[in-house]
Amino acid sequence: MAHKISALKLQEPLILAGEIATKVDVDISVRGGGTNSQAEAARVALARALVEFSPRLRETFLEYNRQLLVADVRRKESAKPNSHGQARSKVQKSYR
Questions:
Q1: Contact 9, 40 (CB under 8 A)
Q2: What is the pLDDT of residue 66?
Q3: What is the pTM of this model?
């Protein structure tokens, strides 16, 4: 099931591009992350490549879904000292 969803995500830019998609030959390699993250990264790369090939697609992609051209840059926050593995909460200190 997850692979079908990932395949559909990859097809979105091609479907939106229509006739322009038949004029390009694309080869995308991704490393790291999970299958969903790789599908998202490949989707963004494909959409950006199509926009570079045909700039008029930019508006189409932005109207459909801004995430086609703008990657989600959120990452896991690293653990902090004295926080017992939590990224944000700290041990409360009392000096008096």
A1: yes
A2: 84
A3: 0.72
Domain boundaries, the chain: 2-68
User: How far from chain centre, in Å, is Cα 35?
Assistant: 11
> What are the angstrom distances between the C-alpha of 30 and each of 3, 27, 38, 40, 75?
15, 10, 6, 10, 17
Yes or no: say if 60 and 35 are a contact pair by the CB < 8 Å rule. no
Q: How far is CA 90 from CA 19, 81, 96, in A?
A: 55, 8, 18
Q: What 8-state DSSP symbol labels residue 29?
A: -
Q: Residue 27 corresponds to which tokens in the numbers above?
A: 């080869």
| CA 46/CA 95 separation, integer angstroms | 56
- 74 pLDDT band, cuts 50/70/90, is confident
Q: Quick one: 38 exposed, middle or buried, by C-beta within 10 A (0-12, 13-18, 19+)?
A: middle
Buried b (16+ CB within 10 A) or exposed e, 39-63: bbbbbbbbbbebbeeeeebbebbee
